[in-house]
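Hi again,

Forgot to attach this to my earlier email, sorry! This is the prediction with iron/sulfur cluster bound. I've pasted everything inline since the attachment limit keeps bouncing my files.
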Amino acid sequence: MDSMTKGPLPRYRQILEGEAEARYLLTKRTTVDVDLKQDAESLWQVHDSVTSEEEPTGKTSLLDLKVELSKRMLKDCTFCERVCHVDRSSGHAGHCGVLEPMVSSEFLHMGEEPELIPSHTIFLSGCTFDCVYCQNHDISTNPLSGMAIPPELLSRRIEQMASVNGNALRPARAHARSVNVNWVGGDPTSSLPFILETLSKCETNLPQIWNSNMYLTEQAMRLLDGVVDVYLTDFKYGNDGCAKRLSNVDGYMSAIKRNHLLARSQAEMIVRHLVLPSHIECCTRPGLTWIAENLERVKVNVMGQYRPAHKAGRFDEISCPLSMSEYRTAIEIARGLGLDLCD
Ligand code: SF4
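C-alpha cells for the complex follow:
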C-alpha cells in the first residue's frame, strides 16, 4: 500500500521510527555524473533528469548539485516570486534584504501542531513578505537580527539536538522523543543555499519541515524536491487584492496554488490558514474551498489566534483580535468542506 494512504503524515512517522529515510539523506546518497563547474543550464538539465530511485551514475551527490545550483541562483536571485535578479553573493540585497543568513534563534519548539512536536525549530531572519500584522516582525523585517552560524556549526548543532532527543537511538525508543528540523523565519526561502549546505553536512535520519509562506519560484521548489519531508505551509488569502494590501505581494494566488500542488506531489503536508477578522468571505472561504478541491490527504490547521501586531492598527478591519463567532464560522466552513482538521 502507498504509505501516503495510511493516515496523516505516515512517512514522516516512519522516519521518526527509523523505518524510512529522510529525503535529504536519499538525495545525498544519489549520485550523478556531472562536473559542478558546468554552466547553470547544463546543471539544471542533469538535476531535472535524475530521480532518487535511479542507480548511481557518477561521483557527485545530488544534494551537492542542489547546493551548487542554489549558489548560482544567488548570483541572480530568483528564489521567490519577487524575482529581484540581484547578485546577493556580491553584497546586493533584494527586497527581503537577506545577504548572509542569520539565525535569530533555534530551540526545541513545543508549540507547533501536535503531529510535529517536539520540533527543532530554526528561525532565519528576513522575509519575502511584508505582512502588516506580522507577529514575528522583529525578525522578519530585520534580516540582520541574530547570528551568522557557519553551515558546519549548525549541522553539528542539529546532530547534537537529534542525539539528545532520540533520533540516534534504536527505533523503539526513538518513537517517543525524536525530533524534526523545522526551517522557518521570517521565511526560510531567502536562506535556501545556506539550508541546503547545512543539510549536506548532516548525517542523521531527521525529517525536514519547510515552514513557509510558499511564495517560492518554481525553480526554488525544484531544489526542495527530494529534501523536504513535510511542507508546513501558510495559505493566507483567497484573492490577490487582500494579499497585495496586507502583505505587499503580487500574483499571490497563482504562485501559492502552483506551489501547494507541487508540494503535495513532492512530500507530505500540513496547511495552515490564519483567520483574519472580516476576511471570512474574501479569504477564508475561497482559500479553504480551493484546498478542499485540490489537495488530497492534507491536514489543515485553521488558526484562530490572530492578534493585531506590527502595523495592523493602521488597517481598520484587522486592528482587533479575531472574534469567537468569526472563528466558529471558519471552523464550520472547514468542516462543511470535509477538511481533515488538526486537533
Ligand atoms: S529571496 Fe526573493 S525577495 Fe529576496 S532577493 Fe531573492 S527574489 Fe528578492
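Residues 1-5, 168-176 have pLDDT under 50 and may be disordered. The first helix runs from residue 10 to 16.

That should be everything now.

G.
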